[in-house]
Design brief:
Layout lengths: L4 H7 L12 H13 L26 E9 L9 E6 L12 H4 L6 E3 L1 H13 L5 E4 L7 H13 L6 E5 L5 H7 L5 E4 L6 H8 L4 H13 L3 E7 L5 H15 L5 E6 L20 H13 L7
Length: about 300
């Protein structure tokens, strides 16, 4: 069965990237409306981001990058991927593997929308198969990202857009992404709200992420990443895989069950995740996903 066919057609130049036919003027306008009383993610801090007020994510009113480069370590159908790491995050995962970004231990580099658009064009010439917006978390920067895409549209540059996110977008932000993103790359971390609050300090996790996943699967291709955590099979891995199987399983949805958990940042303070994942824990997750009939990545 062919999976992710749409994304692959855009990647291989057989179809145009979707943002080229989106109404980006309207989307940029609406995104900046949300920005003024920030409701870009489910935290809904309602701070005036235009004036530089800070919400939970502490993101500034301009593009601030940690880094951007051609990434060869992403999923095989993505590489080389032009990954753009935005500073800051709306989650506070105690085991964050990019904790220097999410906790503002780096200064970051300020860029204009034109400068970032130029970089995307340059990376495409170097062989990038897509532009991969990530962080931290890209959601707090959505208005600027849409402006960058508008510049690329004016220049008629077709490059697949990958939205690499924790999927805690507000309903309104999710609507802005529809018709723009070619491949959603969500993290699906927790199977319940208690684990999400304890380990990432966010509320109403499961309802928010599953709502956005349903919207994403109805809009474009989706590659769900599930990082298996030690001792979280029953509470997280199992309900996550079962939810996918019952709600969005199809040829536009693949699941990457990730084995690379290691106890970074403050993970030592949480006993059950204070060690690396065992191979058999990962194998158990993959086996279960296959039994459920999911499209599991090799
Ligand atoms: S993006 Fe989310 S966390 Fe950041 S200010 Fe807006 S609502 Fe708050």
């Amino acid at each position: 069965m062919e999976v992710l066919g749409y994304y692959l057609a855009v990647r291989d130049g057989k179809k145009k990237a979707r943002f080229l036919s989106a109404n980006l003027d309207e989307k940029v306008e609406e995104a900046f409306r949300l920005f003024e009383k920030c409701e870009l993610c489910e935290h809904k801090c309602r701070v005036d981001r235009i004036k530089g007020q800070l919400g939970v994510c502490r993101a500034p009113p301009y593009i601030l990058l940690s880094s951007e480069f051609l990434h060869y370590g992403e999923e095989s159908f993505l590489v080389p991927s032009h990954t753009i790491f935005f500073m800051g995050c709306n989650f506070a995962c105690v085991y964050c593997q990019n904790y220097t970004i999410s906790n503002w231990l780096e200064l970051g580099v300020k860029l204009s929308e034109e400068e970032l658009a130029d970089m995307i064009v340059a990376r495409k010439k170097q062989g990038a198969k897509n532009v991969n917006f990530v962080g931290g978390e890209p959601t707090p920067y959505l208005p600027f990202i849409l402006k960058v895409l508008r510049i690329l549209k004016e220049r008629e540059v077709s490059v697949p857009v990958v939205w690499n996110s924790n999927f805690y977008m507000s309903r309104k932000a999710m609507n802005l992404l529809k018709g723009v993103v070619d491949l959603y790359l969500p993290d699906f971390k927790y199977g319940n709200d208690e684990c999400a609050l304890r380990l990432s300090k966010v509320r109403n996790y499961f309802a928010t992420v599953t709502r956005n996943l349903k919207e994403a699967a109805g809009d474009a291709d989706v590659c769900i990443r599930h990082l298996v955590l030690p001792n979280h099979f029953e509470c997280c891995t199992k309900p996550i895989l079962e939810w996918i199987a019952s709600n969005i399983n199809g040829k536009n949805v693949v699941v990457n069950i990730m084995p690379q958990y290691r106890p970074e940042w403050k993970a030592q303070e949480y006993e059950e995740i204070s060690r690396p994942l065992k191979v058999e824990e990962w194998e158990k997750a993959v086996r279960y996903a296959e039994e459920l009939g999911l499209n599991v990545m090799d």
